[in-house]
Design brief:
The complex is a heterodimer of chains A (95) and B (242). Chain A has three helices and no strands. With 95 residues, chain A is mainly alpha-helical. Chain A has a domain of 52 residues. With 242 residues, chain B is an all-alpha fold. In chain B, helix 3 packs across helix 4, helix 5 packs antiparallel against helix 6 and helix 7 runs antiparallel to helix 8. At the A-B interface, helix 1 and helix 3 of A face helix 6 and helix 8 of B.
Chain lengths: 95, 242
C-alpha cells in the first residue's frame, strides 16, 4: 500500500473512475446508459480540473460536457426514436 | 439500502469539501499544497511594463488590467483565436440547422405538473447565473462560453416545461447582431491602433467591474452569441418525432 495523502487518494479514485467510465461508455449495450455514463465521466473530469485549480476549464467541462452535451445526446436519441417516451396519462403499459 | 448508501455518499463528499475548505491555508485547500507555487505566482503577478512592478488588486495602468489571467490571454492576447472559436461554433450550429431545421410542426407531450411548476424557477436562476458568469468573465473564472452554455441549458429546461416558447427569429437576430458587433470591436482596434482586436479602451483599476478594457464588452457579446446559438440548436432538436 503506497503512502499517499488524502488528496492523492482522491486523485487516484477520480482517475480510476474516469478510466472505468470511459471503457463502460464503449462497452455498454444500452445507448441511454452510455449517454448517462458519459455525463458522469465528464463530471469527474470537471472535478479533476477543479482540484488542479483550473476553475475556468472545470466550469466549461461541467456546463458543456456534463450538462448540455448529455441533454443534446438524449434529445438526439429521442428524435431517432430510440427512447420511447410515455406521457403520465398513458400509464405503465408495455413495461 | 440504496437511500442509505446515497446518504452516506453525500455526507462523505460534504465532509470532504468542508474539511478542505476549513483547512489551514484556506482558499487553496482544494489543491495540493505540497506543490511549490512561488515560481508560478511570481510569473503571474509580474507586470509587463518597464518598471518590473508586481500586479496588485486596485492598481492602475496595467497593459491588460483583467484580474482573471485566463481571460486576459483568451480575449486580449489571443483574441483572434476566440473569434475563430466563435466561427467554429457558428458553423456547427448552421450544420445542425440545415439537418434538423425543417419547418414542419411537431407536437410534443404535455409536461407534468411538477415539471411545469419547478422548471421556470430553475431556468430563471440558470439564466441569471449564466449572465453573471459572462459579465464577470474578466474577474472570476468562466466567461462567454460557459455562461452562454448555461443560458442555453436554461432555455432547454424552459422548452421541456412547455411554458415558454422562445421565438426562433429573435434568437437568430441576437446571434447575428452579437457576432457582427464582435467583428466591429475588432475593427475599432484596427482603426485606432492599426491592429485587429487590439484593446481600444482604458484598462481601469484591477478588480473593478469596469476594468480590463474591451474584455467586458467582448465577453458580453460572446455570451449573448453563444447563448442564443446553443439555444437555437436546442430549439431545433426540440421537435418530437412522430
Amino acid at each position: 500500500m503506497p503512502h499517499l495523502t488524502l488528496m492523492q487518494w482522491v486523485y487516484v479514485f477520480l482517475a480510476a473512475a474516469l478510466v472505468l467510465g470511459s471503457v463502460a461508455v464503449v462497452v455498454v449495450e444500452d445507448l441511454l446508459s452510455a449517454v448517462i455514463v458519459e455525463g458522469v465521466v465528464s463530471l469527474h473530469a470537471a472535478l479533476i480540473f477543479l482540484f488542479m485549480s483550473s476553475a475556468d476549464v472545470a466550469m466549461t467541462q461541467a456546463v458543456v460536457g456534463a450538462g448540455l452535451s448529455t441533454a443534446v445526446f438524449l434529445w438526439i436519441l429521442s428524435r431517432a426514436g430510440y427512447l420511447k417516451w410515455r406521457s403520465p396519462e398513458q400509464g405503465k403499459e408495455g413495461e | 439500502m440504496r437511500q442509505t448508501a446515497a446518504l452516506l455518499a453525500v455526507l462523505g463528499i460534504g465532509w470532504f469539501f468542508y474539511a478542505n475548505a476549513m483547512a489551514p491555508g484556506a482558499g487553496r485547500g482544494l489543491t495540493d499544497r505540497r506543490v511549490p507555487s512561488k515560481v508560478s505566482m511570481a510569473y503571474l503577478s509580474k507586470s509587463v511594463s518597464q518598471d518590473n512592478d508586481t500586479v496588485k488588486p486596485g492598481g492602475r495602468g496595467y497593459e491588460d488590467g483583467s484580474a482573471n489571467i485566463v481571460t486576459a490571454v483568451v480575449v486580449n492576447y489571443r483574441g483572434f483565436d476566440t473569434l475563430g472559436e466563435v466561427t467554429v461554433l457558428f458553423t456547427a450550429a448552421l450544420a445542425i440547422a440545415l439537418l434538423l431545421g425543417d419547418r414542419r410542426r411537431f407536437t410534443r407531450a404535455k409536461s407534468g405538473t411538477i415539471l411545469g411548476a419547478a422548471i421556470p424557477l430553475v431556468a430563471f436562476f440558470l439564466i441569471i447565473t449564466g449572465s453573471y458568469i459572462f459579465i464577470h468573465g474578466h474577474l472570476t473564472p468562466g466567461g462567454g462560453f460557459p455562461g452562454g452554455a448555461m443560458i442555453a441549458a436554461g432555455t432547454a429546461l424552459a422548452l421541456l416545461s412547455s411554458t415558454w416558447k422562445p421565438s426562433h427569429t429573435w434568437v437568430k437576430v441576437l446571434e447575428g447582431t452579437a457576432g457582427m458587433l464582435y467583428v466591429l470591436v475588432g475593427f475599432w482596434g484596427l482603426v485606432k491602433y492599426g491592429s485587429f482586436l487590439k484593446n481600444p479602451l482604458a484598462t481601469g483599476s484591477l478588480g473593478d467591474l469596469l476594468s480590463g478594457g474591451f474584455i467586458l464588452l467582448i465577453y458580453i457579446l460572446v455570451g449573448i452569441k453563444v447563448g442564443s446559438e446553443l439555444s437555437g440548436i436546442v430549439m431545433n432538436l426540440d421537435k418530437e418525432a412522430e
